[in-house]
Amino acid sequence: MSDTIEVLDMVDQPDGSAIMTMDVEPELVRAFAHTGLKYLIEQVELQDDTISPNTFEESTRAIELTNEELNTLFHFGVISALKRGMEGDLCQQP
Fold this sequence. Notes:
Blueprint lengths: L4 E8 L5 E7 L1 H22 L19 H17 L11
Antiparallel strand pairs: 1-2
Helix pairs in contact: 1-2
């Protein structure tokens, strides 16, 4: 796996944000999605400490994501990496 991300295009938006087009290896997409999920879970735990633990069977740990869900998790993974300053590993892979 290559740990590189190639930025193909970046377009500044009037609101100060930017739209970035990147070439990202599939392994890094999965790592960003995993990091995005961890980021969301951390945010929920900060706001709601009443989540009770459950016991799940091993077969329930693998789930299918829609393209929209994967896209959302990927974006949160990028946000998490940017907040961490992208120090060390880009994403802490499982």
